[in-house]
Design goal:
13 strands; Rossmann fold; 13 helices; about 35% helix; single chain; about 400 residues; 2 domains; alpha/beta; 7-stranded parallel β-sheet
Amino acid sequence: MKILIVNSSDIQGGSARAAYRLHRALLDAGVDSQMLVQSKNNDDYTVIGSRTKVQKVFAKLRPTFDSLPMRLYKNRIKALFSQSWVPFGGIVDRINELNPDIVHLHWICGGMMRIEDVARIKVPIVWSLHDMWVFTDGYHYDSDFDIQNHGLPSEPKLLIQKKIAKRKAKTYKNIKSMTIIGLSAWLNDCSKNSALLGGKRHINLPNLIDTKVFSSFDKQQARSLFNLPADKKLVLFGAMGATSDPRKGFKELLKALEYISAEYELIVFGSSVPKEPQGFKQKAYYLGNLHDDVSLRILYSAADVMVVPSLQENLSNTIMESLACGVPVIGFDIGGNSDLIEHKKNGYLAKPYETQDLAQGVKWVLNNHNYDSLCNNARKKIITEFDSKVVVKKYIELYKGIINQYE
């Protein structure tokens, strides 16, 4: 069985990290897996990137080219949008040259592939949904339009959106075998009820994580390594674009901090020290971007609790990683958060967008007389349901079933 994982990048971004983890888990399970990317950032020989210097240069430029048409609309919504129109990428030709049994698509935007190219893939397709883009008319999340219609407005606002919806509908119709994986129960349900993917086969399968890599580390040693105080209760917050991406909820966190004691202190990763003070009373430590799993493991272990105040979330890597390290997590009860956080068992699910309840969750966890049980439950949840060896078996079973059915 030969599997090809396809993602725009190998290690940069949440979808890349999830796709690469699946790729490595398949290899560890004895499966012939390769990963094909537009931008390669590590030296893993099983990951295939651009072949020449010219291709590498164009790989960096393609995301900009892909965004150009939307920039013509001055009154456009300021949210992530992908048209996927840039030609001559050669990705599909390489996919067909490699001749796998299954092509497992992940996040293929950023100019990596044209929508129409997906139908040119000659073998069955499995497509993991890291956001809503696959079944919307160009936007990656639905905050700016009809939530009840699961991200696909009945009347697209712009001509470009209408065209993208038509291109996707035509392309999906021409694909013989395509299985959609909703990484969270929430996104799986959104996709099943969408106009574009409603007729496709759907399966709810999560991302996986190596619980040997992400495990608890001595808290005092962890704090010493990051030069953090040994005698304070520390609240951790972080993500890519932690303070700049509105969906990550930094504004909501700031409001929640108003209800939290100044005795607690805040750790922020994914963002450097801001030029202007943020205005909250707690002392904060800004650690910038962390790129390796070892640093992340140590950082999670240094914290007493993690807060993920995202306004939209599929299946959060940071929640999964924190729980795997035995650190309880607080987040709004939205999206796929409830797939990971069990309310008052390994963390706290606050009422959606209610910042005072988010603050209550922080206080409830940090002052809980059964805090050690929360930590034990956090790690147990991930080992039982999301560990690499547990989840990869389900992916292998899925692949085998598709191959047998296709033959």
